Amino acid sequence: MGRGLVSCALALYAGLSSVTALTPEGMISANRYGDAIPNPTGDFALFTVSKYSFETHNSSSKWAKLDLKTGDISDWEGDESISEFLFIGPSPSSILYVNGTNAEEDGGVSLYFGDALAIGDAKLVASIPAPLSGLKAALTSSGDINFLLSGLAYPNGTAYNENFATKPASAGRIYTSIYPRLWDHWLTAQKYAVFGGTLKTATPGNGTYGTGSSFSFDGKLTNYVTGICNVTCAESPIDTEGDASDYDLAPDGSKLIFRSKDIDLPLSNYTSTPLYLVPFTGTSEDAVLLNPSGAPPYTDAEGYSTGPKFSPKGDKIAYFQQNGINYESDRRILYIANPDAKNAQITKLAGKWDRSPASLEWAEDGQTVFVQASDLGRDRIFSIPMTADNDFVPKNITDEGTPSGFHVIPDGLIVSDSKIWSSRDIYTISAAGEPLKTYFQSNKVDPELAGLGPEDVSEFYYATNSSEIKQQAWIVYPEGFDNTKKYPLAFLVHGGPQGSWASSWSLRWNLKTWADQGYVVVAPNPTASTGWGQNLTDAIAGKWGSYPYWDLVHAWKYVNETLDYVDTTRGIEAGASFGGYMTNWIAGQEMGQWFKSLVTHDGVTQTLGAYNSDELWFMNHDYLGPYNASGMVPGSPYYDWNPLLYSDQWSTPHFVVHNELDYRLPISEGILLFNMLQTKGIPSKFLSFPDEDHLTLKPENSLVWHTEIFKWINFYSGISNATSPF
Ligand SMILES: *[C@@H]1O[C@H](CO)[C@@H](O)[C@H](O)[C@H]1NC(C)=O
Ligand SMILES: *[C@@H]1O[C@H](CO)[C@@H](O)[C@H](O)[C@H]1NC(C)=O
Ligand SMILES: *[C@@H]1O[C@H](CO)[C@@H](O)[C@H](O)[C@H]1NC(C)=O
Ligand SMILES: *[C@@H]1O[C@H](CO)[C@@H](O)[C@H](O)[C@H]1NC(C)=O
Ligand SMILES: *[C@@H]1O[C@H](CO)[C@@H](O)[C@H](O)[C@H]1NC(C)=O
Ligand SMILES: *[C@@H]1O[C@H](CO)[C@@H](O)[C@H](O)[C@H]1NC(C)=O
Ligand SMILES: *[C@@H]1O[C@H](CO)[C@@H](O)[C@H](O)[C@H]1NC(C)=O
Ligand SMILES: *[C@@H]1O[C@H](CO)[C@@H](O)[C@H](O)[C@H]1NC(C)=O
Ligand SMILES: *[C@@H]1O[C@H](CO)[C@@H](O)[C@H](O)[C@H]1NC(C)=O
Ligand SMILES: *[C@@H]1O[C@H](CO)[C@@H](O)[C@H](O)[C@H]1NC(C)=O
Ligand SMILES: *[C@@H]1O[C@H](CO)[C@@H](O)[C@H](O)[C@H]1NC(C)=O
Ligand SMILES: *[C@@H]1O[C@H](CO)[C@@H](O)[C@H](O)[C@H]1NC(C)=O
């Protein structure tokens, strides 16, 4: 795919009215959009557009430029080698970018400085000898640019480049404490670290860029993290879970903040993640804890700290922290710290707000932060003023969809989000939430998404017996839906379990893709779901097979009794991760008889295998304590909610997917399930990808995943006329 992707698509499909079903091929190969990053004056924004081709079996990626004055979208001249950038320098279009290649150091990257409006003239300013990323940069008082990048480091602190590493003769691995592996890799001596460097200006200014824009780099990178050690050493960003939002650089480049797991605790057992503050000119020896675990005045703040960000003047740091020390889904609370105080003065804002905000951005005047939080099946942006007291209840300033990024511009905010019916919308709003302008909606331009819209989706609330509150479920209609006809039910259970089906576009479990096979999709948000208050999220602890199961029964009965256009006698059920656990649980309960077939992706078959996982705090929390042999009696969640103990009741045809690189729920769970099903003579099929982890991400694998699962469920639901499910 060459240049002209965006403009070509816009030209071709403006006014297109033909409507087609969303196929797996179409969903996987449709354009994928990054979020729009505006320049400081809000004149234009840049975003990536990438596309996979099933013809060439290749991905291509390019940058698009959105003119925020005219709304025009055109190709930006920067090419695919620009992996990330930020606006910094004398003019509002001055730009510093990471070139993901390095001509001198194989496997390294490089930094270029130039002007976004003449990007071809950008100059190489730094050669970085390792694959670092996550660029942050700030102008210093002398006119230099201080920057941060992050990546793996050797135990001695030097940046790690796999291409130059010496391979040991044996591949053996030895561990003497818990946490040998995480997500999809075995842990090694190399840990993530934040590195700092300085781009020296050729023409010193005084708090300005001087007259020029020419910089040089002496090659010196300071590692601020690796040297901080006790029981373990510090690591930032945190492996797998973390990213560049784990650290930030003060706007004058004088100091940085980063988060690390608590170095005094066994890492797989606790989430505790304090923040460290370090002078830019210092080293890891100068790092001080901003919010030591359990320190006054907020002694119960001991869990994950996330998203630290300096205010525009640098006089405040906003961050979130959870209380629970072994619970990844506790409520995140907003804190504001003064980085210049001797003992960082910390203030909690809107501390009682019953939502769990995630990402944050500062308003330009430093008097408000905008936060994103899961809210009633969407992710909404809320604003929280510095004057907010503990009882303050923030107001949402967006409504539909799930933002993937939002940025402050002079007029308000530019938001890039997605919805069940659109892979990318880009729009602006005022700081108070008034809509300003909608610039882009992928369902209006991408042929694969033609005809999708909010009318494809609805929701209902139903009463259940596990919670006082009614619970929500999404309905997604198939292409050409006619409510006088009947469609088989696809009943989908989300993972987590602390998570939700939200109005967002996803390349996995894309609700509209399932619906367009010819189903009415019902996607319930039972006990454990996020966005309806912390009590609903927390209520699953110790209750895996009861509350959420009862809720699903109630949701299904609501559908059976209320939605005339749904044929529940031809229904199928499917879920991944916790949704896969629940599918296996359902298989042995009464509900298992209500479906024609079941699909488990990377689920749990037996709770005794819980300690095969990577992060042990998860089971310790959700099963009310660590596994122990004498505790395997009725009354213990490990015993009570073990799907395998109900396998005598299994009989429903069952499709099993389990990937080899899944170290969260290892493949033995899927093999056990398949072997049991086969032994019992229950129609079943097993799919496994040796190169995928807990998620199936590669386009070719994803196509096989969809094709095989749909072939199976469409046979059992009677949608296809195939003579066999295989
Ligand atoms: C895919 O891309 C790679 C690298 O960009 C190129 O070498 C290769 O020829 C491409 N393959 C096809 C089938 O286009
Ligand atoms: C990226 O770096 C390579 C050398 O590694 C160079 O050939 C290429 O022109 C650079 N591209 C950009 C956009 O800077
Ligand atoms: C750090 O360790 C690596 C791997 O042993 C080695 O290649 C590198 O030279 C060391 N760096 C320093 C500064 O000692
Ligand atoms: C920089 O400017 C400030 C006032 O803006 C002045 O006090 C200071 O002396 C200047 N420093 C240099 C090195 O010129
Ligand atoms: C190291 O960790 C232990 C707890 O395991 C703690 O008591 C001690 O104070 C820590 N030492 C330092 C220097 O942080
Ligand atoms: C891990 O945490 C659990 C409680 O959640 C505790 O019982 C266990 O002793 C801890 N293990 C270690 C090594 O700290
Ligand atoms: C805030 O959310 C409500 C639904 O809870 C919605 O009706 C309202 O439009 C949203 N406000 C804004 C400014 O989008
Ligand atoms: C959450 O549960 C606690 C304990 O049962 C109760 O006191 C509190 O009122 C509940 N909060 C909400 C918002 O329902
Ligand atoms: C709640 O409803 C479920 C599903 O109908 C049922 O199995 C369960 O026994 C009920 N629980 C209580 C306490 O009524
Ligand atoms: C579903 O609804 C049908 C028709 O109302 C009813 O006969 C059937 O018993 C219901 N199924 C269950 C499991 O409640
Ligand atoms: C084992 O687990 C049970 C139930 O969770 C608990 O009551 C008991 O104290 C535990 N025993 C040990 C030795 O940890
Ligand atoms: C299945 O057969 C029926 C009746 O012959 C036909 O109307 C329908 O289009 C066929 N469906 C598929 C998916 O081939």
UniProtKB/TrEMBL annotation:
Its domain of life reads: Eukaryota
- State if Hydrolase is listed as a keyword: yes
| Secretion signal, residue range per the UniProt entry | 1-21
Where's it found, cell-wise?
Secreted
Q: Which UniProt keywords apply?
A: Glycoprotein, Hydrolase, Protease, Secreted, Signal
Q: Please give the chief subcellular localization of this protein.
A: secreted
| Family membership noted in the UniProt record | Belongs to the peptidase S9C family.
- What is the recorded name of this protein? Dipeptidyl-peptidase V
Highest lineage ranks of the organism?
Eukaryota, Fungi, Dikarya, Ascomycota, Pezizomycotina
